[in-house]
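I have been asked to look over a protein record a colleague put together. The record follows directly below this note.
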Amino acid sequence: MEVSDEVAEVMVQSVREMYNYDRRTRYHKAFYFLDAFDWTEKYALEHSPSAEEIILLKEEQAAHEKLLAMLDEALSIITPMQARRVKGYYIRGLDFTQIAKEEGVDKSVVNRSVHRGLKCMREFYSCQQTE
């Protein structure tokens, strides 16, 4: 069948685009539609982090690991009762009422104890970071 040059050009271009699309799909192993799931397009379009972002992330992780390493020492400078209550609240995920029930004391006592312990720990951390 004979068609005009413009139509033939569009058909050739269409075939090229389909071929390129298939090649990209195979290369990226992307055998799904970008709108198949809510997360798919975002995941496909995410780029790997830059060198600067990687360095910043490593520095943040190192600082975080340093603080975690100092946690046992920081907990040792507060009273054992404060340490137990701080661990209960922040590590075990209990609220003040649950800790108070466990220990048979009032909720406000636990609240004050945790906050005093945190204040001492903050002072410890600020002294350690300035050194």
Notes: The chain is about 75% helix and 0% strand. The mean pLDDT is 84. The radius of gyration is 30 Å.
